[in-house]
Amino acid sequence: MRIIIFILVSIWVCLGYSQNKETLYDFTDLPQSLMLNPGANINFDYHAGVPFLSQFHINAGLKGASVYDVFADDGRDINDKIENTLNTLTSNDYLTLTQQLELISFGWKSKKNEKIYFSGGIYQELDVIGYFPKDFAVLAYQGNQDFLNQPFRFSTINGSAELLTTYHFGYTKKINKKLTFGARVKLYSSMFHIRSAKNKGTFTTVETPEGNNVYQHVISNVDVTVRTSGYASMEDAEGKEITNKLIRRAFLGGNLGLGVDIGFTHKINEQLVITGSANDLGVILYAKDVATYRAQGNYVFEGFEMPVQFSEQDSQNFIDELKEAIPLDTLSKAYVTMRPLKLNTSIRYSFNRYDDGTCDCYIEGEKPPYLDAIGIQLFTQFRPKKPQYAVSLFYYKRFFNFLRTKLTYTIDDYSYYNIGFLTSIHINKINFYISANNLLEYTKLAKVRGSSVQLGFNIIMR
Amino acid sequence: MKKKNNHVLLCVLCILVQSISCIKDVDFDQIEDVTLTPIYEVDFVHSRFDTNQFVGFNIDPAISIPEVIVNDTLSYDLLGTDFVVDNLDRIELTFEFSNTIERDFEFDFGFLNADEQRIGSLYSMIANSGNGEGTKPVIITKVVILDNSEIDILRDATKLFASVRLQNVNSSLQGILELKSKGTYFFNYEL
């Protein structure tokens, strides 16, 4: 137990929140911007990511609390701090963890039509969201004594986790001088999936002064479902067997799904640009290794009547009664889930064109680039309970030909003062980039409620 | 040359800012001190003894039955799992008798293992005599505390037995004895 908590806390502390990549979005110096908007206005001849190193992305976040709230070295009893945090958190607070690793990434300009750019690759993704199961956390931490006559709601149990690989191929076309459009087809191979949402029912300990006993323990209209795929066959598997199964599923042996990304860039004028994209508009059909656990029913327990001779009834067996009243069914029926759809949109104003005639920082024959840009971005991700939103202001600065940066200020569920920064270094064809957010809080990372890190190496030819 | 060095310095600085972070003012060793102390209220046993159900009206009131004993045993896994046994601080069993029958009742209960052998103590209590049918019931509350050592002894309990006994019963005896009870489980779980 202690190890699990430690690992969770470590992930929470060391890593960085929703899948928002505000620094990478519309950062058209990097091919990874195509993964956020296939209609990004990139200007490459070809690109190749260094295998396994072209993008490592991780973000984690907790809405409602921070590590500091519990582990602050302030002389207060940790149990009091846990209780305070427990009272502060609500069932709309959540923990998210997303990790992505690009295995292969490549792209090239079409020889037949230089207005078309093809890009493709494979990446692995882990996506976890767990809403805080407030009511049952309270029941476990404090018991029911102080919560008599108050219902503990099963609807507070919500979450999902998925490990998958995505094979993708995209097409970006400069339709005309003003509009660039792109689309990307994605084939998902899910290695493991678990989801519990839309649960119903309550558990209440009711005081019954006029009843048969002191209380009635009432489980009312419970309907709890946990869908899993890729789990049932793992239950008895060990170490290497699990690894082999996961690898097989990673290479299209898992539950398959299909999705698309679409996006555009529209130049309103030379300096003003708007963009928009929808990512992971798709579904996965879970048909292999599916186990759905569902418990439904009502039950009232008021202790054991004894001696039963008084009532001339049969002796009770609590466990049997409960199992009969709320049977746990295991189903293997296939199910379909939507991928978490993400929407991005931005407006950018560029200025400060580098035009003194000495710069070698742009392609011959093309107009010199603007060295600065400001703008605003909006991000939305659809989650099991409700969408998450983020809004960012950004400032793009190109210092020299080899150093391009982007500074963002983001307001989201986790923070109202999240500063992010991306550095991209281009030396000949070699590119390295690193990006992180919540920089203001970096010296006191424990207080951070979410942060995100991306880094990678590319070979880019212009 | 100097300009180039500045560029390199700028790049290194940008990367460093994004790579270095530290966690101050937190102490993860505090996890050693985390103790969960939930308290659960759970119904225990209940019964309702109405003399009408046991003594026929047509029996001559002069005929007295010296002693009536009612026994019962039921499957009852008091502690469930080793986790519960190892992390339970104590259990308080609270019994409330409400009696209008003009007799004292003796209520005994205990626990049996899978071989039907009693383990732990035999717990006895008296529900004092009431004042007859239609009167205000006499209410007696008893608390039995099962401490750590008793809980450990009851680790293998799988059944609960109970008996109710009363003496000198005849058909003129009227009234109701009600028993309500609950267990308060005090946990103390250190991570």
Give a verbal description of the structure.
The complex is a heterodimer of chains A (about 450) and B (about 190). Helix content of chain A is about 15%, strand content about 50%. Chain A has about 450 residues and is mainly β. Chain A has one domain: Beta Barrel (Porin), CATH 2.40.160. Chain A has a 21-stranded antiparallel β-sheet that branches. Chain B has a single domain, classed as Jelly Rolls. Chain B has helices spanning about 1-20, 80-85, 150-155; strands at about 35, 40-50, 65-75, 90-100, 105-110, 120-125, 140-145, 160-170, 175-185, 190. Chain B has a four-stranded antiparallel β-sheet. Classes of the chains: A mainly beta (about 450), B alpha+beta (about 190).
Task: Sum up the structure in keywords.
heterodimer, A: 462 residues, mainly beta, Porin, 21-stranded antiparallel sheet, 14% helix, elongated, B: 191 residues, alpha+beta, Jelly Rolls, four-stranded antiparallel sheet, 3 helices
Give the CA-based shape of chain A.
Answer: elongated
Please report the two chains with the greatest interface, counting residues with C-beta closer than 8 angstroms to the partner's C-beta. Answer: A-B, 66 and 58 residues
How many independent structural domains of chain B? 1
**Which class of secondary structure composition applies to the elements of chain B?**
alpha+beta
Number of separate structural domains of chain A = 1
CATH third-tier fold name of chain A: Porin
Q: Report mean pLDDT of chain B, rounded to a whole number.
A: 83
Oligomeric description of these chains: heterodimer
- Fraction of residues of chain A in helices? 10-25%
Order of helices and strands of chain B: HEEEHEEEEHEEE
Number of strands of chain B: 10
CATH architecture of chain A: Beta Barrel
Strand residue percentage of chain A: over 45%
- CATH C-level class of chain A is Mainly Beta
Please report the number of helical segments of chain A: 7
Number of helices of chain B: 3
Largest sheet of chain B: 4 strands, antiparallel
Tell me the CATH topology of chain B: Jelly Rolls
Average of pLDDT of chain A: 86
Q: Helix share of residues of chain B? A: 10-25%
- Rg of chain A (C-alpha, Å): 27 Å
